[in-house]
Amino acid sequence: IPQTLESVVLVDDGRVHVRSKAFLYVAKYLTRPWRWAYHLRWLPAVLLDLVYRFIARIRYRVWGKFDSCQRPTEDQQAHLLP
After folding, report:
1. Averaged over 22-36, what is the pLDDT?
2. Which sign does the torsion angle of CA 6, 11, 14, 16 carry?
3. Rounded-to-integer distance, Cα 77 and Cα 70, Å
4. How far is Cα 78 from Cα 75, in angstroms, rounded to an integer?
């Protein structure tokens, strides 16, 4: 089990998306304003990943850091890989 989460991986309809592209495809299921990010998916992955890494570097200063995370509900667990 990794000690740190290095990136986000999304498998959708057999296609694998990583880092910024994974976030953008997840964003289409979120509420506004996050959903608007989905429209940036046409930008080059190199550019998007630069922004992704920058945000990852400053995320704790912007959103804070928590000692624990919320456990998923049974309904949410049905959508996760075992």
Report:
1. 89
2. negative
3. 12
4. 5
The pLDDT of residue 1 is 44
In this structure, the number of other CB atoms found within 10 A of the CB of residue 13 comes to: 4
Token pair 């057999």 is found at 14
pLDDT bucket at 13, cuts 50 / 70 / 90: confident
Helices 19-27 and 45-63: crossing angle, nearest 10°?
Answer: 70
Cα 72 from Cα 53, distance rounded (Å) = 26
Q: Which helix (H) or strand (E) holds 10?
A: strand 9-12
pTM of the model: 0.60
Q: Please name the residue that has the structure tokens 């998923």.
A: 72
